[in-house]
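Reviewer 2 asked us to include a model.

Predict the structure of this chain.
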Amino acid sequence: MAEKESSPGGQKMYIPISLLWLVSIPLLSSVNSLPTPRGTLITCGASNAIASGDLRYVPDDGFTKVGNKATISAPNVMPILRNLRFFPDKSARKYCYAVPVVKGGKYLVRTSYYYGGFDGGTTPPVFDQIIDGTMWGTVNTTDDYSNGLTSYYELVIAAMGKFMSVCLARNSATVSDPFISLLEVEYLDESVYNSTDFKTYALGTVSRAIFGDTNSTISYPEDQYNRYWHPFKDENPTVESKSGVKMLSFWNMPPVRAFSSALTTSRGKNLKVKWPQGSLPESLYYISLYFQDSRTESPYSWRVFDIWVNGKKFYSNLNVTADGVSVFAAQWPLFGQTEIEMTPGDGIPVGPLINAGEVLQLLPLGGRTHTRDVMAMDDLTQTLDKLPSDWYGDPCLPKNHSWTGVTCSYGKLVRILALNFTGMGLSGSLPSSLGNLTSLTHL
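Predicted model (structure tokens):
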């Protein structure tokens, strides 16, 4: 069964597994006022900082040392998407950005892609995406680009060190150079998605929706973390809320406008909503659903109903008032088309309703190379010149994307076994910390 939020705080729950999910967004921006998200907003390939509404995106030169810049000449493209960085070196096992973070901090990481025919082609390349030592998934923006849309991928993950690496890599389907338009790494407060064991898993966004709303996507500043909430409307009746909610009453800090509208039905009827759209792979998911009684606040503005997800009871006798309420589960099995059904309690004078929802799929983390080995290799990159273009990020992980010339063991601890610099054209000196590679058998 799901659990109900009462007030922000720590509460233990479940966990799933995942590949990332691609979401489409129109090429437009948003406005207005909350504190600027804490973190780093990067416009890749740009030469100068670019403002987008109240947000400021900085050039990527200080975050990566590989790849080339390109400018898109297509009309009506947002300024932050007019530049990109692409990676032509076919010999490299990965191409990485390194973004400073607070170790142990929780971050929303979003990569965005708009192809724009930068390489003279008509079809975007397909390639992989990696975060630290974890294979995030495959980037395929072909359908979105053909419909004039940009694409983004989003992950909630905890920082394992003082830097977080976000990398691209070629795969068997890659026929042209991988590229990236935007990289956003934004700090999340402790209460947000706090039921997840972030030492073991990350959360990949599947869908974040505001029900009954036909206006534009919600982002910053209405959402202080710059999450995207997309309008969702089906054949069910809609209703507007007569009172507001207090965002701080909810652990995940949803924007106030997420409660401004709802899908509903008449008295005595079940409310059925098929969402998220599309078929989901069989896995476990984090689900959070948001509700608020739409009537003017009074002693009588409440409604009670049960919630079912794909025929399995999710929550019993939920009492929804004008103050708003959220119920969530962090390890819920889904497969195929998802249907959320709300069944009213006996004698309840109004039908069920639902305002907003989030579904995120859990991605098991791929681990990390032994800290002592990582530090020694970082020192090595500081004392050598003409480094291979893939000598950034985790030196051993993911398994098929270790640094060129580095051989690793993949037992309980991931250790460096051998370094082979033959034919690499390196120059410089070897740091004394290389002696900390205690599993090294060949140099």
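The chain has three domains: 12-203, 205-364, 371-436. Helices lie at 142-146, 371-383. We have added this to the supplementary material.
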